[in-house]
Specification:
Elements (H helix, E strand, L loop, with lengths): L12 H14 L16 H13 L3 H14 L9 E3 L2 E4 L2 E3 H18 L2 H19 L11 E3 L3 E3 L4 H20 L5 H16 L15 H9 L5 H15 E2 L3 E2 L7 E3 H13 L3 H10 L13 E3 L4 E2 L6 H15 L11 H6 L8 H5 L1
Antiparallel strand pairs: 1-2, 3-4, 4-5, 6-7, 8-9, 9-10
Length: 360
């Protein structure tokens, strides 16, 4: 099994050059980053890939990705669910967490580059996007998952999606502060959203089956700082055995033996947020057995069958790998975006894989 131990101060640039180059090769001339060559794209995964480009120093390509969003933004501030080759692939709805994520990407680019002019260029795009999202906020603070082009706002919410929006609101507020713009209603909306995620479970999964079987519903409130400190560590401990397969990674859902690289990378960053640095290093070291020769990463692995599935190498998976590697190593000045600085510096946390021993 290939293992690479990325840690504070150690980022193997040559090893990850191919990963960044893969994203850049798949990116189209207009800036669009599809999932894979000839595939669709969606706004959230497009931003995840763009952040990977930024970490890898492909700044012109990253800018083009954000300018694509600026150019394609709809009059109401949103983007449709999916595009392909510059055309609308799925125009049935605009998903709130997809729309909000532009703020996370734009702030990340500024953190890495210090480019305030870029923030100014993207400001109106961020404003329009966040105002669209906040129009979908419910009475308890939850954000409804989408606006359907025919049926209007669909009044149900997702823990993972709302947690992502909570982080995007943080980034949007940081952009506003840097540009000396006043948007106090964004701060209030974020507070209400965090309260809904933490204290109003009845607001979520009301009209469909519970999404609690998905690992993202488990760790996203930690990744995005809805749950922090010791409660975050306890939260991850509570379902660790349910979702993590030793020597492989994190499964997508708890009832299928399918380890996925992107979710595993996001769990790495959630571990950092909870102060579990050693566990994060170990988990990330398992994932490179799913790396292809050119630096791209396969989506996932069905472990009983020893089968890579599906046979796709998403750009957003490569982006997630770069984000996790950066957070672990502190390569760029954006490394702390998905990391709790105070928790990371300790280095003395107990391995999550040892929690059962600790409590016995």
């Amino acid at each position: 099994m290939t293992q690479v131990y990325v840690s504070m101060g150690f980022f193997p640039d040559e090893y990850f050059t191919g990963t960044v180059d893969y994203i850049a090769r798949v990116q189209q001339n207009d800036g669009d980053i599809p999932w894979y060559p000839g595939g669709p794209m969606d706004p959230w995964d497009h931003v995840e890939s763009a952040m990977g480009l930024t970490i890898g120093g492909r700044l012109d390509e990253a800018k083009q990705a954000y300018y694509w969003l600026k150019q394609k933004q709809l009059p109401n501030g949103s983007w449709f669910a999916a595009y392909k080759n510059g055309e609308i692939e799925d125009g049935t709805r605009a998903e709130s967490n997809f729309v909000a994520y532009v703020a996370t990407g734009v702030w990340h680019y500024h953190l890495v580059t210090g480019d305030t002019e870029f923030l100014q260029t993207m400001w109106t795009t961020v404003v329009s996007a966040m105002e669209f999202v906040l129009r979908l906020q419910g009475d308890h603070g939850q954000i409804y998952w989408c606006e359907d082009t025919e049926l209007g706002i669909r009044e149900d919410s997702l823990i993972t999606g709302c947690s992502s929006i909570y982080k995007s609101l943080e980034c949007a507020l940081n952009i506003a502060t840097t540009l000396e713009e006043e948007v106090p209603h964004w701060a209030l909306a974020r507070t209400k959203l965090g309260n809904a995620i933490a204290r109003h479970p009845e607001c979520f999964d009301r009209t469909w089956d519970s999404k609690s079987r998905f690992s993202m519903d488990w760790f996203y409130p930690v990744l995005t700082n809805v749950i922090t400190g010791m409660p975050a560590r306890n939260h991850l401990r509570s379902r660790w055995q349910e979702f993590v397969v030793n020597d492989l990674g994190c499964v997508c859902v708890n009832d299928e033996p399918w380890v996925t690289v992107a979710e595993s990378c996001e769990l790495v960053m959630a571990l950092l947020t909870a102060g579990e640095y050693q566990s994060a290093v170990q988990l990330f070291s398992w994932l490179h057995q799913f790396r292809d020769d050119d630096g791209a990463y396969w989506t996932g692995y069905v472990h009983p069958d020893k089968l890579l599935w599906p046979e796709e190498r998403p750009t957003w998976t490569a982006g997630a790998v770069m984000l996790a590697a950066d957070a672990l190593s502190n390569k760029t000045s954006g490394a702390h975006l998905f990391r709790n600085e105070m928790a990371v510096t300790g280095g003395s946390a107990v391995m999550l894989s040892n929690f059962d021993k600790e409590s016995s």
